[in-house]
Amino acid sequence: MQMPQPDGFVLSRKDEIVTRLKMVLPENAVISDEVETRAYECDALTAYKCPPLAAVLPTTTEEVSAVLKVCHEMGVPVVPRGSGTSLAGGALPTADCVLLGVAKMNDVLETDYGNRFIRVQTGRTNLSVTGAVEEDGFFYAPDPSSQLACAIAGNIAMNSGGAHCLKYGVTTNNLMGVTMVQMDGTILQIGGAHLDAAGYDLLGLICGSEGQLGVVTEATLRILPKPEGARPVLMGFDSNEVAGACVADIIKAGVLPVAIEFMDRPCIEATEAFAKAGYPMCEALLIVEVEGSDAEIDEQLALILEIARRHNPVELREAKDADEAGRIWLGRKSAFGAMGQINDYMCLDGTIPVSELPYVLRRIGEMSKEYGLDVANVFHAGDGNMHPLILFDANKEGDLEICEAFGADILRLCVEVGGCLTGEHGVGIEKRDLMVDQFAPADLEAQMTVKDVFDPKWLLNPAKVFPLAASESRRSVALAAE
Amino acid sequence: MRPETEAELAEAIATADAPLAIRGGGTRGVNLNGDLIETGGMSGITLYEPGSLTIVVQAGTPLAQVDAALAAEGQRFAFEPMDHRGLMDTSGVPTIGGVVAANVSGPRRVSVGACRDFMLGVRFVDGSGTIVKNGGRVMKNVTGYDLVKLMTGSWGTLGVLTEVSLKVLPQPESSACVLIDGLSDADAVAAMSKALASPFEVSGAAHVPVGQDGSPVTMLRVEGFAGSVTYRSNQIAALFPDHDVRIERDGGAVVKGWAWVRDVEAFRDKAGDVWRVSCTPSDAAEIAARMKADGLIYDWGGGLIWARVPEGTGLRTQLGAFDGHATLVRGTGQLKFQPEPAALAALSNGLRHRFDPKGNLNAGLMG
Q1: Strand order in the sheet with A215-222
Q2: Is B137 in Cβ contact with A248 (below 8 Å)?
Q3: pLDDT (tens digit, 9 = 90+) per residue, B265-302?
Q4: What digits encode the pLDDT tens for the residues A98-122?
Q5: Which residues of chain A from 355 to 374 reach within 8 Å of chain B, CB to CB?
Q6: pLDDT band at B152, cuts 50/70/90?
Q7: Which helix (H) or strand (E) covers residue A233, if one does?
Q8: A355: nearest CB among B52, B73, B350
Q9: Residues of CATH 3.30.70.3450 domain(s) within chain A?
Q10: N or C: which end of chain A has fewer CB within 10 A?
Q11: Which residue of B has its CA nearest to A445?
C-alpha cells in the first residue's frame, strides 16, 4: 500500500508548527517527541506504520477549531483519530501530518429520556454510551465488535455497523446531530434533537466520510428502550447452500431477527479448539437471535424453528436460560480471537446480496486453493455483510502480499455479484485502490467534488478513500497553493 | 420532454440552456418555471429479491406498481410515504422517484426511520448531464461517500434520479391501536413519549386535538405477529391507568386511521397554508401554541407538527428560533424550506453549484 511522499516544506517547518500548536493548546496536549509520536503510528491495520509529525489531544471543540486553523494556515495535513481501532487504516498518519486525537473528549453532555437522545463528546467509546443509559433501561444500538474500545468519532467517520443492524440500522440511522469543525476552523451545528434535515442531508453525507470533511467533536445519538429480553437459537447445516436458503426463508416469512450470524466449517473448527463452546461440527452454522417478551420470543422462535426443520438441520439448539444463551454466543464472539491464536489473519468486510451467498462461498473456497491460503468465514448473514478471514504468516516472506492479492480478489468478487467493497469497516487505505473496481471515474469525481466543497485544500485525511492517482491533481493543487 | 432512457435524459440536461422543471407524478405541489422534464418514461422494476429485502426500481415507476409488487410478497416500504394528492388537491400518479427526491416519510418514521434510512443506492444525472451512481443494492455499504443520502430529499436540485434501490421490510401480520381520549396537547406529548420509551415497540404515535369525532384523541400503534400485538397493546394501555383508554383491534380500522394521519386528511378541502414543523418532541405543545393555528396534528410523538394557518401567515417569524425547522408544504409567497445558518448555507450552495453548475435543475427550490 503506497502513501504519498511527505511534503518536504511541511517537514522542514516542524518546530514552527509545534510552536504554533503549543500557543493554542495546553503544553501537555501537544506531542512532538519522536519516541512519543510512535504511539500514534498506526491503527488496527498494523501492517502499515508511520509516526506523524506531531500529535495533538484537544479537550474542547474550541481547541479543535484552533488546531485546525493553525494547520489550515500553515498548509499542514491533519489525520483525525478516535480510538485507533480502524481495520482499514482510516487513522494511519503520514509523516507530514498533525494527528488530531479526540480521545480526551469523552464527556456525556446531555441525556434526555423523554426525547430519547444522548449528546456526547465523540471521544467517548461506543460501549460507554450504552453504559451511560442502561441503568435507566436504554441502549445505543450500533454495536461494532470493537465497541469496548472504539470511539463514537470513528463510528461516525466509518458509519460503523455491528451484529444487530438488521433490525436497528447502522450509525447513520442512529445519528441525529453533530457539532463539526471544518478544516478552516469553522464550527458547524448540524441536526439536533429533531428528526430530518432542513436542507440537504449534510448529516448523512458526513457520516461515513472517513474524517475527510470535518472533525466531529460532539454527537446527538438516538437511544432506544431496551427490549424485555432476547434469546438465540443455534442451527447446524450440512452445506452453505442450505444455510443460505434457510436465511432467505426466515426473512421471507416476515420474521425480523435482531441478528443472523453465519460461520463456516473452518471457522467452527478454529473456535471450537479455542473457546470450546460445544458447537456441532458441520459445514455451516447459524445463530439467530430474536427479541421481546418471553411469549413473543416463543412465538418468533417457533416460526424460525419450523422453517429450519424444513431444511434438515444436523443440529437445532434452543437456549433454555441465560447460561445456554451465553454458550451459543460464546464461539461466535471468540471467533476473531480464536483465529488470532492459530494464525495471522486479514479480516475482509465486503457485502453481497444475500441470494449470492452460496456462490460466493464456493468461489472463495476455490480461490483459497489457488492462492494456497486458508479462509474462515464468519459474518452477518441477514444483511450479506461478509467477514472472510484470510490466514497467513506475517513472518513468511511474501505471504502478506499473497494475502492482500487474495483479499482484493474476494472484494472484486463481491462487487461482481452486485455487492460492495466494504460494509462497515470503511475504505481507508486498505480498499482505496480497489475503488475503481466499484466506481466509474464520474462516480468518484462526484464524491471528490463533495470534499472540494468541505475542504478545498484537501488537507483533512487526504490520502484515504480515493485511489491516489484519482485524487492526485487535487492534492497537488493544495500543495502548490501553499 | 419525457425521456425514455437515462442516456436521453443525460443528453437533454447536458444541452439545456434554460431552467428545467423536474416532475415525477406532479402530485406534491411543486410548480416551478422551466422546461418540463417528466421522469415517467423511465419506468419498471429492475430487480426485486424478497429474500434479500431489496428492490431496485426506475425512478419514474408509479408507486402503486411498486407497492403492489411488494404486497404480493408480503412486504412493504416501512417508512410509510404519504400521498399528497388530497392535501395538495393534485391529481396524477405518485412515482418512487418523487418519494425519494422529497424524502417522503410518514408516521412510522418515528420508529423505523425516514425514506433516507431505507435508501441503498441511486443513479442520477447531475446538472451538467453526467451519469453518476452511488451506493448499491446491499444493506450494509460504506464504500465511499454516501451521496445516496445527499440525493434523497434534495428535490431534484442536485441531479435527476433515474434509478433507486431500497430496503424493504415484511408486512406485519397484525396491528392494533391504543387510543387515549381527551388529553391536552402537552399531556398527549408526555403520553406519547412514555409509550415510545417503553420496550413495546410503538410504530406510530400521533395526537389529533380535534379528531374525526370532534374531540382530542391520542393514537399509539403496534404492529407484528398477532400474539405479540395483543400483548404489547395491553401493556401500553396499562401504562395509562389514569386515562380514558381503549384499544382498536380491527386491523382494517387501524390501517384506515393511520392513513388518515399520514395523508393529513384533516386539512383536506380546508383553506389556508399548511406547514410541517420538525422539532424536539417535548417542545411541541409550546411551539404549536405559538402558531395560533386553525388546525393541528402531532405526529412522531410530537417531533412533527402539521399546522394549518391563515394564508400568508409568517409562521417562521412567529416561531423564532427553536431546535428544528419549518417547511411550507401548501402555500405560496414564502420560501418552502427553512433558511439555513450562514455556514451551512455556504456548504449547501457549494454542493448545489458543483452538482448543477448551470443552476438549471428545479431552480429556486432549494440551495
Answers
A1: A108-112, A117-121, A215-222, A175-181, A187-191
A2: no
A3: 999 999 999 999 999 999 999 999 999 999 999 999 99
A4: 999 999 999 999 999 999 999 999 9
A5: 355
A6: very high
A7: strand A230-237
A8: B52
A9: 230-332
A10: C
A11: B132
CATH architecture of B6-170: 2-Layer Sandwich (3.30)
Do A442 and B130 make contact, defined as CB atoms within 8 angstroms? yes
CB contact under 8 Å between A199 and B367, yes or no, is: yes
Chain B hits for A248, CB-CB cut-off 8 Å, are: 51-52
Whole-complex ipTM = 0.97
If we measure between CA atoms, which residue out of A145, A37, A129, A143 comes closest to residue A87?
A145
Of A299, A353, A445, the CB nearest to B225: A299
- Dump pLDDT digits (tens) for A184-243: 999 999 999 999 988 999 999 999 999 999 999 999 999 999 999 999 999 999 998 899
Q: For residue A164, what pLDDT is reported?
A: 85
Q: Is A172 on the interface with B (CB under 8 A)?
A: yes
Q: Where in chain B is the domain with CATH 3.30.70.920?
A: 174-262
Confirm or reject CATH 3.30.70.920 for domain B174-262, answering yes or no: yes
Please determine, looking at this structure, whether the domain spanning A230-332 carries the CATH number 3.30.70.3450: yes
Residues with pLDDT less than 70, chain A: 478-482
CATH architecture for the domain at A343-432: 2-Layer Sandwich (3.30)
Tell me, what's the pLDDT at A333?
Answer: 82
Name the one residue in this structure whose C-alpha cell is 471450537: A272
Please compute the mean of the pLDDT values over residues B97-115 and round it to a whole number: 98
Q: Which stretches of A26-182 are assigned E, i.e. beta strand?
A: 30-31, 54-56, 78-81, 98-101, 108-112, 117-121, 138-139, 175-181
Do B231 and A227 make contact, defined as CB atoms within 8 angstroms? no
Is A419 within 8 Å of B138 when comparing Cβ atoms?
Answer: yes
Across the strands, what pairs with A230?
A291
Put simply, the chain B residues between 239 and 258 with a CB less than 8 A from any chain A CB are none
CATH number for B265-330 (one of 3.30.300, 3.40.1620, 3.30.70, 3.90.1580): it is: 3.30.70
Asked if pLDDT for residue B11 goes beyond 90, the answer is yes
Element (H, E) at B299: strand B295-299
Q: For A62-101, how does the pLDDT look when each residue is reduced to its tens digit (9 = 90+)?
A: 999 999 999 999 999 999 999 999 999 999 999 999 999 9
**A 233-292 residues inside an 8 A Cβ radius of B:** 247-249, 251-256, 292
pLDDT at B350: 97
A183 to each of A83, A371, A450, B253, how far by Cα in Å? 20, 43, 14, 54
Chain B CB contacts of A454 under 8 Å are 347
Q: In the predicted model, what is the mean pLDDT of residues B3-30?
A: 96
Q: Is B231 in contact with A295 (Cβ distance < 8 A)?
A: yes
Percent of chain B with pLDDT over 90: 96
The verdict on A441 touching B (C-beta cutoff 8 Å) is no
pLDDT in tens, B133-149: 999 999 999 999 999 99
Residues of A in contact with B278 (CB under 8 A): 194-196, 198
Percent of chain A predicted with pLDDT > 70: 99
Q: How far is B165 from chain A (nearest CA, A)?
A: 12
Measuring CA to CA, how many Å separate A419 from each of A157, A384, B121, B143, B338?
A: 21, 9, 11, 10, 37
Which pTM does this prediction carry? 0.97
In the sheet that B159-167 helps form, which strands lie side by side, from edge to edge?
Answer: B45-49, B54-58, B159-167, B119-126, B131-135
Q: Which CATH class is domain A108-225?
A: alpha beta
A83: left (phi over 0), alpha (psi -120 to 50) or beta: alpha
Interface of A with B in 175-204 (CB under 8 A): 182, 186-190, 192-204
